[in-house]
Amino acid sequence: MGALDGIKVIDLSHVLAAPFATMIMADLGAEVVKVEPPFGDDSRQFGPFVEDEAGEQQSGYFISINRNKKSIVLNLKEEKGKEILRDLISDADVVVENYRPTTMKKLGFSYEEMKKIKKDIIYCSICGFGHDALEEYASKPAYDMVAQAYSGLMSITGPEGGEPCRVGSSIGDIMAGHQAVIGILSALRHRDRTGKGQHVDMSMVDGLVSVLENAIARYTMEGEIPGPLGGAHPTIVPFQSFKTKDNYIVTPIGNDSLWKKFCDALEMPELADDERFKTNPLRAENKDELIPILAKRIKEKNTAEWEEVFEEYGLPYSPVNTVDKVVEDDNLKYRDMIVDLEQPGIGKVKVAGSPFHLSETPGEIKSHAPAKGEHTDSVLKGSLGLTDAQIKEMKSQGIIG
Fold first, then answer.
1. What kind and span of H or E run contains 123?
2. Which residue(s) pair with 74 in the sheet?
3. Which of 134, 183, 187, 253 has the fewest CB atoms inside 10 Å of its own CB, making it the most exposed?
4. Mind telling me which InterPro entries this protein's record contains (predicted)?
5. Distance (Å, rounded) from C-alpha 304 to C-alpha 296?
């Protein structure tokens, strides 16, 4: 049994933030019914693409974030489609959506309406600026890049002195998805104790502001407006990437004891006794003098040679891996973080595994990402008791698919 066995989720989401959240819940054992419009989730049109046995183009993007779910197609522009959704919600524990607040309200599925269908429902919304926001913000459209820019994250990302830079993955969506799961699980725990449901109002911008780490403290305590520092840490030195002969390596030297070992590993013990560099505050104060010395030395060997040296001295380090090396990494494979997903019509597709390594109820990949409407018949028969004739009739009317 998964940790969330017995929890039923109606997934009204699209693209990334909320689908990522419902994938986590599905990995942990929840039954997730993904409700798609007749044209399907937008992300089915996002690459990379792979051709299946029928000659159709399947989206690797969609496959990577929709495993372990069931898909049904409902036309919510039709009243009968809305009626079916209400019936599904009446038997669910959680509803997750990531449309603009005005969209769900127009459809008749705001939290206030959901409560009328099932009073203890957990209703999770993810949007750019939050449902409970200033009026001009609540309805603003937002993608990941908007959240990264507005939150300030882009202003501290990228090479020192360079232009604002987006984080390489859609961290605004991903962080909101992770935090949404925490909110949903907290709400379920509260419902267990009190019998009350609630609205989980998640904002992509909020999520990124919450992980700005010490950037806010540096501004409010010191008056400094943080900027990008490339691979460096603003207050711990050395704590950054260095160019080797053939690649890059990171060396996060987080305390003075490690600093002494690091100097020995570089065969530069005199640096440890240098009055400018003895403590971390001094190294941070004099980093413009220190970093060029270290950079020159580290560039004298290739990455593998430095790995061997740093390993011998017990120092924290890592090569800056490219994705091909990540996919082939032995430890990540051992921890099931790179796994083969058997996708019908395609075969095995490599995807990231579940990071939830619980000793009794770990996250698990049990099934493929569904084809659009793959489970419409089985869900409507099993959950609502509809007959084949009723399903056939509604398909002919464009209500379901």
1. strand 122-127
2. 400
3. 134
4. CoA-transferase_III_domain, CoA-Trfase_fam_III, CoA-Trfase_III_dom3_sf, CoA-Trfase_III_dom_1_sf
5. 17
Give tens-digit pLDDT for 170-215. Answer: 999 999 999 999 999 999 999 999 999 999 999 999 999 999 999 9
Q: Which residue numbers are catalytic?
A: 173
pTM over 0.85: yes
Q: 239-243+248-319, what's its fold?
A: formyl-coa transferase, domain 3 (3.30.1540)
Encoded tokens for 245:
């002969």
In whole angstroms, give the CA distance from residue 343 to residue 108.
Answer: 35
Alpha-carbon separation of residue 250 from 56, 159, 295, 319, 390 (angstroms): 43, 15, 11, 6, 62
Residues with Cβ within 8 Å of 175's Cβ and at least 6 positions away in sequence, in order, are 204, 207, 208, 211
Q: One-letter amino acid identity for 133?
A: A
Tokens found for residue 94: 């959680």
Q: Residue 319 carries which side chain, given as an amino acid letter?
A: P
SS3 22: helix
Amino acid at 150: Y
The pLDDT score that the predictor gives to residue 392 is 96
Pick the CATH number of 8-210+330-396 from 3.30.470.30, 3.40.50.10540, 3.90.1150.10, 2.70.98.10: 3.40.50.10540
Tokens of residue 176, six digits: 């909101």
Strand pairing class (8-12; 94-97): parallel
Residues in the chain: 401
